[in-house]
Amino acid sequence: WLYFLPVLKELDADLIWANRLKFFKKNSHCLLQTLDQTSQQLTTAEDQAQSKSWRKIKNMVHWSPFVMSFKKKYPWIQLAGHAGSFKAAANGRILKKHCESEQRCLDRLMNDVLKPFVPAYHGDVMKDGERYNQMDDLLAEFDSPCVMDCKMGVRTYLEEELTKARKKPNLRKDMYMKMTEVDPDAPTEEENAQRAVTKPRYMQWRETISSTATLGFRIEGIKNEDGTVNRDFKKTKTKEQVTEAFREFIKGNRNILNSYLNRLKGIRATLEMSPFFKCHEVIGSSLLFIHDKKEQAKVWMIDFGKTTPLPEGQVLQHNVPWVEGNREDGYLWGLDNLIQILTELSQSFGGKESLHNGNEQQKWEKAKQMFKIPTTFTASKLSCYSLFMHLRDVTD
């Protein structure tokens, strides 16, 4: 029953505990023996867990793009991107299908001021006849993490992709189908008659329906604590819609939100100092938001497959409008908008430290006050026998 205390319901709490304590008193002799046995088991389990490496956390949830669950058998899919791009590796690492461009970027980032904000890179390896980039599993230290992927910038295609597609403007029926699934009214009369669109047309249309064009970033997908995935953000376009998505993602937890904000501000300041960032066009890269029920929260820069170096001597500002030919990506503009949205969301909470109803530590503190439990008791380490005796005494 020890674990009932942190999850105590606020409604009818007095009545619930009064009835429970009456039962404890009535059956005290047999209960005390059971509680002592439970206490020993919990202490032993905790000591064993603490002796293990943090990379081997019990019941760790692994889910892509940087995590996957073996026990729950979540499929190897990316939150945003192509399925089958990742494999498990040893020592808290993952394998991502090799991409020459991404390898070059990760190599350079390991010697750049941005290194603390990107997954540590450990070179390329061969596995099952295929080549992979090996990097840290960013979610190895999280317990049942919630994950959000935000695609940064005002476009997710390279200028050369657009130019190449225009040279061979083949009609694509698959892209027409994707377009009509999102917005049946999007195709022109001619496109409806052909039941196909060109790739340049589709690429440019795709950016206009989301917040990519209006805010400089878009939400690609969210994975919740229970493993459910939501990728229905293709038409999430307004500031209000994005704010609501983040509010739901953090479940009103201001502590998590503030951790995200601090991390984003750190990334923003570091980008200004980064030689790598100044001389690269950053396209299709994401910010990966990760938090768990312990209120651990971090943001990482990921996905550099379309990040390309500029000609020698050329630099980008990353916060001015894109005009075809200038290669501007709008990364900083999007990041500034993201920081502003989360800052306003934090301010909307007022003086409340957290609106997260599932905060077990807060419930434990409230229970200690309710039953006058001494501060020497903690939720993680305490003698069940002593706590039982204390509760019996205070209710006599």
What order do the helices and strands come in, and which of them pair?
Elements: H1 13-26, H2 28-51, E1 86-88, E2 93-97, H3 100-109, E3 121-127, E4 130-136, E5 146-152, H4 159-167, E6 171-172, H5 173-182, H6 189-194, E7 197-198, H7 199-208, H8 211-215, E8 217-223, E9 229-230, H9 239-250, H10 254-273, H11 275-278, E10 280-281, E11 286-291, E12 297-302, E13 308-309, H12 331-348, H13 360-370, H14 384-394
Antiparallel strand pairs: 1-2, 2-4, 3-4, 5-8, 5-11, 6-7, 8-9, 10-13, 11-12
Tags for this model:
396 residues; alpha+beta; five-stranded antiparallel beta sheet; four-stranded antiparallel beta sheet; 41% helix; disordered N terminus; Kinase; transferase; IPK; inositol hexakisphosphate kinase activity; EC 2.7.-.-
Can you walk through the features of this model?
The chain is an alpha+beta fold and 396 residues long. Among the domains are: 155-212, no CATH class; 359-396, no CATH class. Helix content is 41%, strand content 15%. The protein contains 14 helices and 13 strands. The chain has helices at residues 13-26, 28-51, 100-109, 159-167, 173-182, 189-194, 199-208, 211-215, 239-250, 254-273, 275-278, 331-348, 360-370, 384-394; strands at 86-88, 93-97, 121-127, 130-136, 146-152, 171-172, 197-198, 217-223, 229-230, 280-281, 286-291, 297-302, 308-309. The strands form four sheets. A five-stranded antiparallel sheet has the order 9-8-5-11-12. Strands 1-2-4-3 form a four-stranded antiparallel sheet, covered by helices on one side. Strands 6-7 form a two-stranded antiparallel sheet. β11 (286-291) and β12 form a beta hairpin. α10 packs antiparallel against α12 (331-348). The longest helix has 24 residues, at 28-51. Keywords: ATP-binding, Kinase, Nucleotide-binding, Transferase.
